[in-house]
Design a protein that fits this description.
Radius of gyration: 12 Å
Number of domains: 1
Distance between the termini: 27 Å
Helix content: 10-25%
Length: 75
């Protein structure tokens, strides 16, 4: 079982995820909840139409977005 932690964050710049072999999809700016595990981070947010959305990023990709301040973690 992977240990996870949940963090609140805000997408502040251009962040994308790629589902399977598809084209990259933009995660909209705004609040997200992030489940950080050993090898991945799962982002959850609510779309403008009220739909629940989820995207998985590799841990490396997630850390790059945080480092580049495209994802801002809540204090």
């Amino acid at each position: 079982m992977q240990a996870t932690k949940t963090v609140q964050a805000t997408i502040t710049d251009h962040v994308t995820f790629t589902p399977g072999d598809g084209a990259p999809i933009v995660i909209p700016k705004g609040p997200v909840e992030i489940e950080v595990a050993t090898e991945s981070a799962t982002l959850s947010w609510t779309a403008d139409n009220g739909a629940a959305c989820v995207a998985a990023l590799t841990l490396t990709q997630y850390k790059e977005y945080v480092r580049d301040k495209k994802i801002t973690l809540a204090s």
